[in-house]
Amino acid sequence: MSKVVSTNKDQAVTSRGWEALEIKLKIRGLSCAEIQEAHKSFDEGIELLSRMFLNCYDLEKKPLV
What we know:
Layout: E1 3-4, E2 14-15, H1 18-27, H2 32-61
Antiparallel strand pairs: 1-2
């Protein structure tokens, strides 16, 4: 995930992953506690997705009999 922060109008400002989501949540006016809960949920979701990927990847590498 990359994050480029710029104050120059000629350069692109790009946030990805949690940083992008956090910016959107702050704009919507969520409290610090709500943002912390969202961050926890985001991290848990990423962890679940990575485990799912690894399980599928392991299954693909096993020879079929």
